[in-house]
Amino acid sequence: MIDESIPYLAIFEDDVYLGEDAEYLLNTTDWIQPTWHIIKTETVNDKILLSSDRYEVIAEKRYLAQLKGTHLGSGGYILSLHGAKLYFDYFTKNKLIPIDELMFDTFLSEGLEPIYQMTPALCIQEIILCGANSALLLPGSLMTDRSNKVNKIKKPFTYKLKREVSRLALQMKKALSAENIPFK
Fold first, then answer.
1. pTM of the entire predicted model
2. CA-CA distance, 130 to 125, in Å (whole number)?
3. Which of 45, 84, 93, 116 makes the best surface tag, with the fewest CB within 10 Å?
4. Using the 8-state DSSP alphabet, how is residue 155 labeled?
5. Distances in whole angstroms, Cα of residue 163 to Cα of each of 37, 40, 71, 99, 160
6. How confident is the model at residue 37 (pLDDT cuts 50, 70, 90)?
7. Nearest to 84 by CA among 11, 151, 166, 157
8. Residue 179: helix, strand or coil by DSSP?
9. H or E segment at 135?
10. 21-34 in b/e burial notation, b at 16+ Cβ within 10 A?
11. For residues 61, 120, 64 and 47, what is the CA-based torsion angle, rounded to 10 degrees?
């Protein structure tokens, strides 16, 4: 994308279902504002924090709002060329981390770049749509890698305590003002 100066690129994992309006949204870019460099197009059916500012993408059907809290998962998103350069620069200066952690945690917590969430979401991974116990028609290639990883690094008590206090505060905030992003 960077080498060929491609202005926008939609990226999807291999086990996503696309929703209504996909043909229009993925074949045109006139709906994308120049300041939107990272657009999350998927849902993981978890409540998330969004800004109250809404930007209509398709009249009375879809809008974007800036993410205000972590929303892990990178099954589908759109990057601008500027967004791709931000990621590339970050990876060359820092340790490699999973892209969803970089996009939807690090960038948010460090205020590096606003991230926008499409709602209703344009895509959803099959495991989220059908459930973990269903027979999957589109088994993702990352499933095996993820299921084989076990975090064996022991964290210090202070880290665990801080994480739990933060988690409790976030749960309270989500209970009061978070939204569920539907798939359509």
1. 0.77
2. 9
3. 93
4. P
5. 30, 25, 16, 21, 5
6. very high
7. 11
8. strand
9. none
10. beeebbeeeeebee
11. 150
pLDDT of residue 143: 46
Cβ pair 103, 41 in contact under 8 A: no
- Ramachandran category for residue 9: left, alpha or beta (phi over 0 → left; psi -120 to 50 → alpha): beta
Which has more confidence, 152 or 164?
164
* Residues 29/31/37/40 CA torsion (nearest 10 deg): -100
Residue 58 host element (H or E): strand 55-58
Which element (helix H / strand E) includes 102? none
The secondary structure of residue 20, as a DSSP letter, is: T
Please report, for the chain, the start and end positions of each structural domain, with discontinuous segments joined by +: 8-180
Q: Measured at the alpha carbon of residue 22, what is the angle toward residues 119 and 50, in degrees to the nearest 5? A: 15
Rounded to the nearest angstrom, the gap between the alpha carbon of residue 46 and the centroid of all alpha carbons in its chain is 12
**CA–CA distances in Å: residue 106 to residues 69, 94, 182:** 11, 11, 24
- Taking the C-alpha atoms of residue 100 and residue 106, their distance in angstroms, rounded to an integer, is 9
For 110-145, the pLDDT digits (tens) are: 888 999 999 999 999 988 888 876 666 655 554 444
